[in-house]
Amino acid sequence: MKSKELRAKRAKLIEDARALANGETMTAEQVTQFDAMMAEADQIKGQIDRIEKADAANKELAAGIAARAENNGTSPDEQEENEKRHERVFVAWLRGGIDALAGEDRAFAMQRVQAYQANFKNAGDMGTGTGPGGGYLVPPAFAAQLLVALKEYFTALNLFDEITGGTGADLPWPTNDDTSRRAKIIGENQQVGQGNMSFGQVSLKAFLYATDAILVPWTLMQDSFMDLDAFIRTAIATAFGRTLADDLTIGTGVGMPQGVLTAAAAGPTAKAAELVYDDFVELIHSVNRAYRSGAVFMMNDNSTKALHLLKDNQGRPLWVPSLVTGMPDTFAGYPIEVNESMPDIAAGATPILFGNLKNYKFRMVKQVSVVRLNERYADYLQTGYFGYARFGGGLPSAAQPIKKLVMPGAAGG
């Protein structure tokens, strides 16, 4: 079944579930039926997401090859062939290390090892000039596929403003609030006023992230059917994804990135423990209109369940399931981004964000490197690998473009 057909089926299920719970006391049988409908709707949503993520990933990878071909002055076909060679040599290195390679392949691999050392040396935030032995700067296609996998795991990365390249040194970023700045009519020969807009500056730091050792038994490595490249990439993406989801959401900014929830300004306080339509009107209008273009709601899955049956003052459902491929569901007219690192609805919590997430800056410095631990786990008949890269994030804006809804009551009370 295609994505469009699945969306129509899901929308019908949600509509029927709403009709079943339309302001009346539900029997136990109706509650069971309602729960089954919503569970099926969630299952279909998972199918839709998988289909559309795969399609989007293929398009992103193809676009990446085309962009790298343009940068290198080659055709897309030639670039793809070069990257296939990168991958073939990289997989051979993963299986047997540099000693398993000979001739042109060994010379090519040595270039990647040297690039890895240069990448480490030029980090700008490291206390040593060389990286640990056994390292390899991954091929462009591996890095691109890893970023796609990261975005599949932590989908908010698709909404943040991504800054790549450079070194690990602090990145100065100007800040200003011009939401009240206006032009004015002046007379002939009249001096232009200076106004009162002032600029500030913050530093976007990059932090070194490393995975734990990924252990692969020698028996599996000898199996030609094992896609070692994909196995390592998935393991690294999962490890980075779990940590970045938390750090880029609730990170304190001390020794780690400042998460988007931490950085967001406090918005209105909900009127009661149970959210109502008015709370969202207040939250939406707490963000300056200039920053509402492209705005989304961000919340975890538990919070979305609490919002499915909310209606506006005219009795119209606030939650509208999407029927368009690639478009998310909307709530009160704005898209919804589900982020499991957001807190649950509870006393004193800030469970819902609203604003244009492009104002949040996500840093990914240079490329990912993989280190092969040749001997450390030999007595277990295993080879270990770990990946590392530098990431950062912050909200360098004085204009409060993202607000968070505050629940009443003391946290933990």
TrEMBL record:
Residues 134-405 form the Phage capsid-like C-terminal domain. Pfam families: Phage_capsid. Residues 66-85 are annotated as: Disordered. SUPFAM superfamilies: Major capsid protein gp5 (SSF56563). It is found in: Virion. This is Phage major capsid protein, HK97.
